[in-house]
Amino acid sequence: MSRDARWKALLELLVERGRLDVEEAAGELSVSAATIRRDLDQLAEQQMLVRTRGGAVVHGVSYELPLRYKTARRASEKERIAKAVADLVAPGEAVGLTGGTTTTEVARALAVRGDLSTGSPALTIVTNALNIANELAVRPQFKIVVTGGVARPQSYELIGPLADGVLGQITLDVAVLGVVAFDAHQGAAAHDEAEAAINRVLCERAERVVVAADSSKLGRRAFARICGADLVDTLVTDAAVSPETVRRFEEAGVRVLAV
């Protein structure tokens, strides 16, 4: 197993359990305890976990996996969700995309839509995510608008007052939100309050709001609230969503598409 694969596996185990023991992790990954100790030390140096005697713990309530370690999680679900979200976008619209693995897949789904291969522009994409802007900038039919701000390394998103300044001057047809949690009563949320603030402004500037989230994120809460469910028009999720969860969102006025 490569170092990157071990690190991703260790971080995912840590997120699930909150605490890791060296010997236990070594057994699960079939590597030596010395290798796990070295991996945990290096991850702690990058402030991705807190080292303890005999293992490691997560940072706390705002802990999240950096984007590069989340891309393979629930990949097939995210691709289906992304295609369904992309199908909700009409040619010529102005689309806001937040950062995240699912919204990155939405950007890719938009890029391969045949009816968006030409136009002046075929779409206007507004994003605070550097990786999304990088992927779409090579599509000459898309007008790409990137907010200012300070780059957040965990999600590649630009945050802060510079991003606020740009978003306050535009109007969007649709905003697509990637979230870490979405609850019918508590609303949509992120781990980081500055990231949530930018996403909130994006919602306020849009005619309609679409949340793209796999079913593991539904009914959950996170530290920083983005917006209430009343501001969300459509939730696109995967087919594993429970009927009860669908009912709660529909009662809150959210249309649910399960794909």
Walk me through this protein's architecture.
With 259 residues, this protein is α/β, with parallel strands linked by helices. It contains nine helices and 15 strands. It has a seven-stranded parallel beta sheet with strand order 6-5-4-9-12-14-15, with helices on both faces. A hairpin with a 4-residue loop joins strand 7 and strand 8 (157-159). Helix 2 crosses helix 3, helix 4 packs across helix 5 and helix 5 packs parallel to helix 6 (130-136). It is globular. The model has no long low-confidence stretch (mean pLDDT 90).
Average the pLDDT over all residues and give the rounded result: 90
In terms of quaternary structure, the protein is single chain
State the secondary-structure class: alpha/beta
Radius of gyration: 19 Å
